[in-house]
Structure formats: structure tokens, C-alpha cells
Amino acid sequence: MHPRHKQLMRVLSRSLPSCSLVPDVERMYTQSLLVVAATESFGELWPSLAEQFKVELQTVDDPTLGSPAGVAAVILNVAGLEGTAIDLLSAARAAGHDAPIVVGAEADHRLAVELMRRGAAAYYALPEDSPRLEADLARRCEQIRPVDEDDSLATVARTAFDFSAIIGEDPGLLEALDLVARVIPNGRTTILITGETGTGKELVAQAIHSNGPRAGESFVAVNCSAIPANLLESELFGHEKGAFTGASAAKPGLFELADGGTLFLDELSLLPLELQGKLLRVLETREVRRVGGARIKHVDVRVLAAANANLEEMVQSGELREDLYYRLAVILIHLPPLRDRGDDVLLLARRLTASIAEEYGLEFPTLSDGALTALRSHSWPGNVRELRNAVERALLLSVDGVIRAKHLVLTGLGQSSTKSVADQGTGLPFPMSLADLEREAARRAVDLAEGNKSEAARLLGITRKRLYRLLAEA
């Protein structure tokens, strides 16, 4: 075995989590890892990964072979044959292997973007990209559940549902997705999704719809904050001709448009109190009556709602009807903020960087160590939405294919650049003297600025002379 391959296997064997969710119980796994080995490179790695993840290993040497049924991940190994990767990918996809992971030995950003444009899930150059491969396989592994008669819904969920658009390894996020998976098969269950702005509530709602029994029907989303209160009733329930000034024709409401499918009520906390009772009645009776109309229409709609406010506090203050809250929160799913999800921010940043680079037709950039430190340290008040904006801006500002900390401009709303350095939750030992704190801040600012002392001084709001003196004392 090549020494670099041995090193890679040692790293992966230490860091990849096992998918045995309940220890000491004999279980049968229905998933497999399919490796299309166009080359023999990394051949010793695949059995190790299959054993680590407790999945069966299928190995074929032709991309047109191997069954896609029951496969947790398809890996197309083109190491040493990168020039034929696109043709091999096309053959694999034609054989039914959707979105395979392509593994090579050359770090070629152009090839990576082209492969993903043509349907690959990702391209990893080993051993350099081993952390990214690790994260990808870990996510897929978390979706595998063993067969257990007492846990049939979870089994179905982990093996059958596609959550690939929701990226992350944080236990809180995975717990939320597990709950989502358990309720997807029931097409009538009302679900309330909570979480800060930008945590992906609509993405989860779309996943519930697209994986459930109503997937072939309409997914209708409405933002309750985007429609004036005096028009919201008409939007939700529809109106008849002449119901009010300007109602020149009858119009069906969103409940009617979503009939058979899913209605997603975003920003539920902003629903006017006078409409909450009417919404509750529709949820209980599945009947709607248009504004100005007399005819009652039955609707078959799954209702999903989302809010970024503390709804329990709103119930206590009288801003939200208690009966409506409990009717909506039959299943309550909370999405954790990005700042509490550890290294998920790095997984998301890399995936977003690749996606945005493809959108702009740019080469796949790398993230410098300083940029990774800045991403990991920022508090992300805007969560994933803020991260995407920061990555897109940084990608356009970078000029040499490398995204650096200075390109990210992580100041946040109402924050100064100084605060973005000083408030990064860095785990400083306390108590400590003010002088030691200043010296530590100087060192970390220089690290964040990747050695650029002028930039470090600007971030701290001090002169270069002052910065040099602090560094000399450190």
C-alpha cells in the first residue's frame, strides 16, 4: 500500500463515526457502499470504510454495473484516470447511479466544477480532501438506520428520504432531521418548525413535502410578514367578486391552491390575531369559505408552519392563541442556530463555495486557514443565509483562487470589525490580566489577518505601532 494511502486510512479510521446507533444489539443493515473502481488506487480503503460504517461493500470495475437499489453512496474512483472522469460519470449516471461521489488523486478545481455540473455529488482529491470525504460519508451514514421492528418509521426515514440539500453533522440538526423523517410518511400531520432567521426552515418544509405522500402535488408557501394584514385573509382563504373594493373577480385562496398538497405558513408569529381563529377553524374542519362568499369548500391540505419568535412567550402575552399554538405544534421541530453547530459552518462554506463558483463560471477556490478561522469564530446572526452572502461576496472579491479572511467582511449588522475579532468566543482562560488579554487579542488579530499587521491593527482599532509593541511583549 502506498504510504499516503496508509496515512489516509489511519486518519479516516480514527475520525469516521460508526453508524451503530444502538450498541450491543444485533441488527441487519439494508444499505451498501457501491464503489465503481475504474482504477485500483485506494483499493484497500473501501473495505475499511464499509466496515467502519457497517454497510455492505459492492465493488465493480465498470460504471454500467452494480445495482443502485439500497445504496447509501456511490463512489466513482478515477484516481490516475482523471482525464476520463467525465465520460465515466456519464456512463455511471446512464446506468442509474445518480449523483455519485467522484474520487481522484489530482486537485483539479476545473474538473470538480465540471463534474458537479454534469451530475456528480462532489469531487474529492485524496488524500488532501479526506476531511471533506469524511464529512460527506458521515452525513450519508447518519441517514442509515438498521432494521428494527420497534423502530420501523425511523428505519424507513433514514433509508428512503433525501435530505441531501440539508448539510450538517451537528447532533442537534441530526436529531431534528430524525424527527422530520419519522413524521414524513403521515401526509396529514401538522408540523411547526422553529428556529432563527436563516436556519433553513423552508428548506426543511420542502424536504417534508418532496419526500412525503403529497410530493406530486403543489407546495404553496406564504410569508405572513410579506402581505399586508388587510389582504392576508383574502390571500389565505380567497374572495368572491365584489367582496371588497377592488375585488373585480373571484379569486381562490392559497388553501384552495394547495388542495391535495402542502401549505407552508412562514413567519407565523406575524399572523394577525383576528385571523388566528379562522386559521384554527380551517385546521380543525378542513373547510374554507372565501371572503364575501357563502359556499364552503373542503380542502385536503397538509399545513406546515414556521416561526423565528418564541411562540410560547407570545401565548403567555396574548399575542398568539393558545389553542392555535397547540393545534399547529402537533410535531415541533427546532433547528439550531449555525453558531451552535460547530464545524457545520465549514462544511456549509465549502459546499456553498463550490455551488456559487459553478453559478458564476469561476474556478473552484480554496479557503485559507485564516478564512476558516474567521468562519468558525463568527457568531452568524443571519445563520446560513448570512453565510451564503458572505461566501458569495468573498468569492467575487478574491482574485487568485484563494478566499482569505479579509474577503469575508464578517462585520454583521450593528457590529464593527473590531467586535468581530474581539467577540469570537475563543475560550480565553479567565481570570487573566488586561495586559494579557490585549496581547492575546493582538496575536489572534494577526492570525485572522493572515500575517497582515496593517489589517490586524485596523481590525483592533489601534495603530500599527501599538500592535507591534503588543506583539513584542507577547
Q: TL;DR?
A:
By secondary structure, the protein is an alpha/beta fold.
What's the number of helices?
Answer: 21
Gross morphology: globular
Query: What do the pLDDT scores average to?
Result: 79
Main pleated-sheet profile: 5 strands, parallel
The computed structural class is alpha/beta
Quickly list its features.
5-stranded parallel β-sheet; 14% strand; 16 strands; Helicase, Ruva Protein, domain 3; single chain; 474 residues; disordered N terminus; Rossmann fold; alpha/beta; 3 domains
Can you describe this structure?
- It is globular and about 75 Å long.
- It has 21 helices and 16 strands.
- Helix 19 crosses helix 21.
- The protein folds into 3 domains: 140 residues, Response regulator (Rossmann fold, 3-Layer(aba) Sandwich), CATH 3.40.50; 174 residues, Rossmann fold (3-Layer(aba) Sandwich), CATH 3.40.50.300; 134 residues, Helicase, Ruva Protein, domain 3, CATH 1.10.8.60.
- The chain has a 5-stranded parallel beta sheet, sandwiched between helices.
- The longest helix is centred in the last third of the chain and has 17 residues.
- With 474 residues, the protein is of the alpha/beta class.
- Helices cover 45% and strands 14% of the residues.
Topology:
Layout: H1 3-15, E1 32-37, H2 45-53, E2 56-60, E3 71-77, H3 85-94, E4 101-104, H4 109-117, E5 122-125, H5 130-142, H6 152-160, H7 171-183, E6 191-194, H8 201-211, E7 219-223, H9 229-237, E8 238-239, E9 251-252, H10 254-257, E10 262-266, H11 273-285, E11 287-289, E12 296-298, E13 302-307, H12 311-317, H13 322-328, E14 331-334, H14 344-360, E15 366-367, H15 369-377, H16 383-397, E16 402-403, H17 405-408, H18 417-422, H19 434-448, H20 453-460, H21 464-473
Parallel strand pairs: 1-2, 1-3, 3-4, 4-5, 6-13, 6-14, 7-10, 10-13, 15-16
Antiparallel strand pairs: 8-9, 11-12
